[in-house]
Amino acid sequence: MSAAPVAVAPQIAEGVAPGAPGAVPTWSSAVKQGVGASYEAYVDRQYRDGGRTGTVSRVWFSIADGVLTETMYGLIHEAQIKQMRFAVMTGTGLSVEGTDTTSRIEYLHTDAEGRPLSPAYRVITRDRQDRFEIEKHVYTDPDRQSLVVRTMIRALSGPVTPYLLLEPHMANTGVGDRGAASTRSLSAMEGDVALSLVPSTPFEAASVGFLGASDGLTDLADGRLDHAYAPTGSEPGNIMLTGALPTVGRGQTLSRDYVIGFGENAAGAEAQAAGTLTDLDGALEAFTGQGEAVGWEDYLGSLTELPRLAEQSTDGGKLAYASALMLKVQEDRTHAGALIASLSNPWGDTVDATNSSTGYKAVWPRDFYQVAMALMALGDAETPVAAFRYLPQVQVTAETPGNTGATGWFLQKTHVDGQIEWVGVQLDQTAMPIMLGWRLWKAGEVSDAEMALMYTRMIKPAADFLVDGGTIALDWNDRTITPPWSQQERWEEQEGYSPSTTAAVITGLTVAAEIARASDDAASAHRYQAAADDYASKVEARMFTTEGTLGDGDYFVRLSRNEDPNDHAPLGENNGQAALPEDQIIDGGFLELVRYGVRRADAPSVLATLPEYDDLTREDRLRVRYDVGGAPAWRRYGNDGYGENIETGGNYGLGGMTPGQRGRLWPIFTGERGHYELARALQGGASEAEIRAIRETYVAGMEAMGNDGYLLSEQIWDGVGDPTVHRYQPGQGTNSATPLAWSHAEYLKLLRSLADRAVWDRYAPVAERYSR
User: Fold this and answer.
1) Which of 607, 365, 604, 595 shows the shortest CA–CA distance to 503?
2) pTM surpassing 0.90?
3) H or E stretch including 665?
4) Which of 57, 73, 75, 268 is nearest to 143 (CA)?
5) Cα–Cα distance, 600 to 667 (Å, whole number)
6) How far apart are CA 186 and CA 172, in angstroms?
7) Ramachandran category for residue 571: left, alpha or beta (phi over 0 → left; psi -120 to 50 → alpha)
8) Considering just the CA atoms, what is the radius of gyration of the chain in Å?
9) Residues 709-728: pLDDT tens digits?
């Protein structure tokens, strides 16, 4: 019989924790099983207190490996917590949740078909040696700045003693934190932000320390909690807060509730937590929207097209409902309509967190467009309009801080408050805001009067840039842009002529011409359409090689650095990969020409490229398509290095950029191909057999790529590399970014396209002009 674990619970707090500033911090795993936030109703399409949902909660959380990970308060990128987990002392040693446990996740509230009704989760971790199991219920209080974690710890084979470990990352860094610990609360603060974890029952003991020196997990290495440091003192650093729980006897369950409040100081944060603790069941009911409370069930109920989209699924609508939740969760709650790419930091567990970083918790107009269009497809009548109205904040004007050059283009990447982060010029990101506006206008969601104002303010400057380009003078960027040549294509890595970028530019200019005519600007309308016609007439001449080294030599290249796709010019080096001739690199960007209506699905240039795109016999370095579990999937392009290392299994960039890095498969491309196959089927009348085949291949394929929380990742594992060093199975999401909003958006748009029997992103004026 194993000996009972021993927990030292000193009652007298010791002095200041030693060891500042502690170990170098990192973020946590980006393989999220769940993300969540409360539903907050707009007040006149803005976020303000006093609306139907009361106080606006600005708290987001994420879950990975069964533990609470990055938790944000304030703006959506402002992490305040790295992770909260339990370490459990057993009769045979210490087991740390996330490292020594397996996990599974479920939604707390589902309908009769098992479809999620809110992003509240039940998370169960189990010790790999079956010594204990921990169940956690995680959600936020929609009326306060607080997060709820209700826990049940079960001792399975002998007594266990659990310890709560909370690692703050206040103010979005892992350094600069100060902390205080008592049996009644654990607190951390930096600058004007603080958190306080309040337990429903006081801890047996509590301590705060610096990671790797005096933290609770380091202290427990000898099986005993020997210290109870109360403050960190005047020296800040990378800290951990620890709370000891009572020993749980074999076969028994210990239930404890924890609420983490946030505020400007520790007292304010503790008040938020204490308020929530008074009615945890009521907070969950409000979060979900049960009874008279307005919550997530109400939002889902407002999505008029969601039931119709769910009918096109092969999983009963589970991923469709989860996708609707994921897209709305990943919107800032201060800047209405600010739609981010992912509530994660890619490969975060090996990324230095010394400095503030948004990761993917930021605005890219391209991802933004995909999400807004998917929300439109769901029947959300408010968020896409708020998104459209948000866009001028991220467009370059004469007033943009630091800008002395061309205007009208949209910033590459920004914080949700518009703060500039990256300044590369990607012409699709300038075209897509015009495209979104046109769709909203034609749907009657944006009035003629508002469109006239937005034409002057935003659309005309953007369209002018797509025609004229200009010299950039912002931060490091001093390049001259001559459209449709783009400084960066949609993967933000290479300059030149890109099929996907050019498709968006032609589409943006064509619909801009229609908006210009409605705004009594006939001269600009003529100019925009003339430019679009010119770009469309030269698509093949600029980007279709007839002397390629792959297959029969006729296909669209990923990118042409100049106007000669037959010159075998090398592309630039990227992500540790050596430069290769442009004709050796294939991607799926040419399918966007069909999606928007620039080319027919049976255009000779498109049909000629499909065999090269789909070639399963090509060497792994240049191969793009891999079939995973019977579903077709594609990499971004051949020679892609944006992913885990083939040789070591290490994260992207770990140890520097090396040739071993390999970009994996993206669920997005399964959806893109599904859209193309639908477009091709529709040209021939689209028999029910063809529609069924698309659903069973591409819809079901994307559904199979989701994890147990119905979250879609940026990349899934392709099986290439040494199997002894990789922890993923083919088709499983990698540590790149989960959930990726674009992946969920592409899935929902494919469902809408099938429901309508029409490609959702197809633009009638474009198709009528160029796809006859």
Assistant:
1) 595
2) yes
3) strand 665-666
4) 57
5) 24
6) 19
7) beta
8) 27
9) 999 999 999 999 877 777 88
